[in-house]
Amino acid sequence: MIVRALVFGCMTLGVALIVLMLQATSNTAFFARYTTWLYGVGFALTAGLLALIGFQIYRLAQKMRHRVFGAKLTLRLMLVLALMAVIPGTLVYAISVQFIQRSIDAWFDVPVDKAMDSALKLGKGALEASLAELTRKAREAAYAISEGSAPDAAALREVRERFAFDEAILFSADGKVAVQLPGATRAIPDTPTLAEIREALQKGPVKSAEAISDRTLLLRVVVPVAAKSAFDVPQALQVISPAPSVLAADMQVVDAGVREFQQLGLQRQGLKQLFALTLTLAMVLTLFSALSLSFLLSERLSAPLSALAESTRAIARGDFTKLNPVTSKDEFGVLTQSFNTMTRQLAEASEAVAKKQGELEQSKAYLESILGNLTSGVVTLDADLHVRTLNTTARAMLGADAGLLARRLPEWGEVHAPLAALAAGLAQETMTPRERPWQRQVQIDAGPGKPPRTLLIRGTQLPAPIAPGHVLVLDDISDLIQAQRNAAWGEVARRLAHEIKNPLTPIQLSAERLERKLSDKLDFADRDILARATGTIVAQVGSLKAMVDDFSLYSHSARERVHAPVDLNALLREVLVLYESTGALWRCHLQDDLPPVWADASNLRQVIHNLVRNALDACAAVKEPVIVLTTTVHEGQVRLTVADNGA
Predict the structure, then answer these.
(1) CA nearest neighbour of 383 among 483, 471, 316, 446
(2) Rounded CA gap, 582 and 588, in Å?
């Protein structure tokens, strides 16, 4: 605000000073009186304007150094307006200075002074002629007074009326009024002087022209009046008559013109300097006005732009609350209004995106939780067979850590050598064009001292519009295969036991019957032989029965049972995963707070398999088989119920 006030004050003072300088060039008295003051103020104002320009340029340099927004715009406007002001201004300034210098020199080079002298001489000649005519009349009037009886008022009135004098007065030799008409006033006070009276008495008539006003010129003549005797006191007659009005006006104009021209001649160099200073001040004022205008325009232009830039930076930081007030209805106002509308729309869009992002994060976390808790391993591949996701179960099954992520499927062998053959086979399966899902059963090395693990791998191709790639689902079926093998051995043992036991009983009964029937009919020796034979047969049949019983329990007694707390619900879920593709409708009613049971997990798993398979066998002829599994706590014990809608 202070700088703006100084700028306005300097501009106002500069305009006023230029007006005063122009007035001084046309008023010689004013010029002569205030020349030094005008020079001083002009130089001081010029220096002040230059200092303000320098200060504004310094402020602009500081803004440029600190990279203040709008500084470059101010610089460009300043350069453009300065060039627009300086280039034509300098040209006009140079031409004007030269023109004024030569014009002033031309004014004084023309023989105006000679013309003025000639005009002055002509005027003086005409004035001298009028004075000579008035002198002639005054002498005749003095002669008439001297020839009269006595120089009194009547004689004085007579000569005044006769010669048409405006004033006629007789003076004594000592300068006192001797005779004056009654009621008359002296047109020119304090005249004639004693010296003029003495000169007129001694030397002859005294002539003069007296200017009463700008257009009134009186001709005055003092002549001696001859004395009648030697004893009379000498007297002088003063007569006054107006000069012709045209002559008086011309004499005044010529005289004033001569004086002013002489003064201008004396002030010739000062006029040159004053004109040069006026032009310099006008040019500096123009340049300063252009620069000040550039600063003011740049501030007005950069203020809304700076506000928009600040809002843009706020939006870049994610702050959509910064709205700029609309202070005008011009293009900047429309731009600000549009920017505020865009900011509101961005804020709404950002809120919607944040909401969707939160929902996506929740969905992603939910999906990751599901994948992390699946008993099956899940591996997703992109179109180039790079691993995108790998859940915990898959890592445990493959025996590899997170090093497989972002690696291509054929490169798994480089991360974990036992996976080389598996990766090659899976790569071949995924690269083969298919319309339906595929599955493959493979064995992988589980590590030193551990039996190999059997994996069932199923794969499908993702649709291209969503996310082109592949999904692999890995299931560890090692326990299932072992359970199936054990079940097969159990079935073989059961059938063998059944087939063997069936003839043993008749054999034993037949041998015992033969002994009862024939023992009474044989002698002692034969009866003893029969008893030993039948005993042998019965004993061997018993041995065979024991052997069959042992054989039926062979699959269960082949390993050492390990009892431990078992989560029956988790074991049920693990077994049911293997029967998802059977087509039956599985309904599980599992009690949440089910306590663990003390059992051999392997044998209990086999029991569950047998129950489930029995249910499936019972539902073989049912179109829509339904199998219901229920776990409850009954009288301190855990109860498992398997029900079906089969035969």
Answers:
(1) 471
(2) 16
